[in-house]
């Protein structure tokens, strides 16, 4: 079974998650604004419309990814508050501190993540 984090680490990850949440909010807001601007632009020549459609599709995908990352940050914050942050959802062991520092919203250890990715293929 995984160990709970000490008070200093809890505070460290609160800060890391808050910073990540803020960055994602700013990025998502910028992307949404750019998307609205592109959609509001008048239809032009066919070549312009194709280019605009490609950019709009890309921005939509980026926005969806950013929103997913934001959901993961909120879930990590909830795990932090309930005492389950840093415990692998796959095997129940502690997620290594280096992984959490690199990916504060990580739900699993590297081994469980690799198994999940293999199953998804």
* N/C terminus separation: 29 Å
CATH superfamily: DksA, coiled-coil domain
**How many H/I helical runs?**
4
Radius of gyration: 19 Å
Mean pLDDT: 85
Relative helix content: over 70%
Quaternary organisation = single chain
How many strands? Answer: 0
Query: Which CATH C-level class is it?
Result: Mainly Alpha
Q: CATH topology, which one? A: Four Helix Bundle (Hemerythrin (Met), subunit A)
- Categorize the overall geometry: elongated
Domains (count):
1
Largest sheet at a glance?
A: none
Strand content: under 5%
Following the backbone from N to C, one meets helices and strands in this order, namely HHHH
Q: Would you kindly provide a written description of the structure presented here, covering whatever features stand out?
A:
With 121 residues, the protein is mostly helical. It has one domain (7-120): Four Helix Bundle (Hemerythrin (Met), subunit A). Helices cover 73% and strands 0% of the residues. It is built from 4 helices and no strands. The longest helix has 37 residues, at 46-82. The two termini are 29 Å apart. The model has no long low-confidence stretch (mean pLDDT 85).
